[in-house]
Every structure is written in structure tokens, then in C-alpha cells.
Amino acid sequence: MTGAFGGAVLGAVAGLGLMLVAVRVRALRRVDLRVRVLPYLRDVRRVEMRVGGASRGLAGSLAGPALAAAAARLESVLGGAATVRRRTERAGLPGTVADFRVEQVVWGLVGFALAAAYSLLESLKGATTGDVVPLLLICALGFAGGVVLRDQRLTAQVRRRERAVLVEFPAVAELLALAVAAGEGPVAALTRVVARSSGALADELGHVLAAVRTGTPVSTAFDELAARTGVPLVARFAEGIAVAVERGTPLADILHAQAADVREAGRRELIESAARREVLMMVPVVFLVLPVTVVFALWPGAAGLTLMTP
């Protein structure tokens, strides 16, 4: 290890230590209101202190304010808080927009760390001064890649939850229809189904039931479900229940029809998926099986011609 490299490492460690001390001092100067009030409230369940989505432990106390500030800066640059809030609700995530931005910052820092490690290895190989700018660009791209990757993962979580809702919908709708046909009201049927089922759709209906129990009308709660969900079939189901409750139409028939529509839509999607994958199924046949068959058919003849040639 050369003297310059050792000095750079020691300087980086000293700078990081000073930065952690400054962040800690800044965090201690701003005591959270919950920290001062909750110890005197015996009837309130202890909750985990969080600052911008970061735990208020040792690491959270040091990095929490910095992550919150970075998340706020990222939100000011990217924007779209309403879209992120809607996507987190559709994905069933309990956090807020600030928590998601903090996760994006953490993912970005991980990407930056990986890019910085690669840049450090390249610099140790003897990179010149002109190569510093591309390495810095790689580090910036690593941070941006981490942020974008977290956003793409949120999109994947939304799609996975919506697929789970579609899979669970027919069974839940049939259970609601059976409970209503047995003489129970909409709220009692919803309570029975939510208590005996689990999954993404059961969680959504649990939110509806909680809203109803806090005084929200049944039709309004289902209208909110229709506005919150990103699945058109579930939105139509919620709107149908809201209209049935308001107008007094038979609810069991509507639920049976909704379940049949979802099953038919799933069957149609399966047929369309099979039609799209038919071309992909031909790829191994054309590029693997057919060439091997041709070789086995032509090779004996070609070998015989080679042996018979004087």
C-alpha cells in the first residue's frame, strides 16, 4: 500500500467520522414530539419510532435524518407523490410516500456503493486522471439505477397483488353470495367472509369493513374500494354492490354474476396467453429438434459418399 493511498483511506475514514458526529448532533437537537409524550401515556401501545422510514435505533439515529433529507430532495426532483401513493395502496404496502422515497434512496446508495467499488478497483489498476470523469459517471448511474430499480419493483409488486386479487375474487364473491342468500345482511356477510379468508382481496375487504364500522355507509365504502383498486373487475364488483345496497336489488344474483364474469375473463386470458406462447413453443422445435433430425438423416448418407469416393 502506497503512502498516498493510505492517506486517502485515513482521510476518508476521518471525514466519515466527522460527518456521523455532525449528523448525530443535529439529530439530538431536534427531539421528536412522540419521544417526549409517549412515555407518559401508559394506555398507548409502544410503537417503533421512525424518522422518514428509518428506525430510531443506533443506525437509525445516525442515518435517519440524512435519509429523510435525501428522500425529501429526491421527492422534489422526481415528484409524482400522488401516483406513488396510489401505487403503494394498490400494492398493499403500509408505508407512506416518504417511506418509499427513503427506500429508493437506500437502493440508490447500494447501487452507488457497487459502482464505487468497481471504480476503486479500476483506479487501483492504474487509471489516469482522464478516467476519473467516466468513473464518476458510473457512480452516478449506479445511484440512478438503484432508484429506478426500486420503482420497477413497486410496479412488479402492484402487478403481483392484482393477479392475486383476480385469483381470489371468484371464491370470495361466491362466499359473499352464499352468506347473503342465507339471509345475512351485507355487513354481516362481509364480516363472516373476512374473518374466514386471507389474501389480498380479503385485506381490501377488511379495509372496507373497517370503514363501515367507523360510520361510513356501505355504498360509500365500496365506492372508495372501486376508486382505490386498479383491477377493473374488482372496481365493477364494488360499484355493483354499492348500487345494489342503495337501490335494494338482489345482491346474491349480482355476486354470482360477478364471479362468473371473473371466471370467464380468466378463461379467456388463459386462451389468449396460450395463443401468444404458441410461437415460443416452436422455437425449440425449429432451432433444436429439427436441426438434430436433419443431421441424423443426412449424416449417414454423407459419410457413405465420403467412404465411396476414390
TrEMBL record:
InterPro entries named in the record: T2SS_GspF_dom
Location in or out of the cell: Cell membrane
Recorded topology in the membrane: Multi-pass membrane protein
Domain Type II secretion system protein GspF: 174-297
This protein's UniProt keywords: Cell membrane, Membrane, Transmembrane, Transmembrane helix
Main location: membrane
Signal sequence coordinates: none
Sequence intervals crossing the membrane: 6-25, 105-121, 133-151, 279-299
Record's protein name: Pilus assembly protein TadB
Taxonomic source organism: Nocardioides phosphati
Lineage of origin: Bacteria, Bacillati, Actinomycetota, Actinomycetes, Propionibacteriales
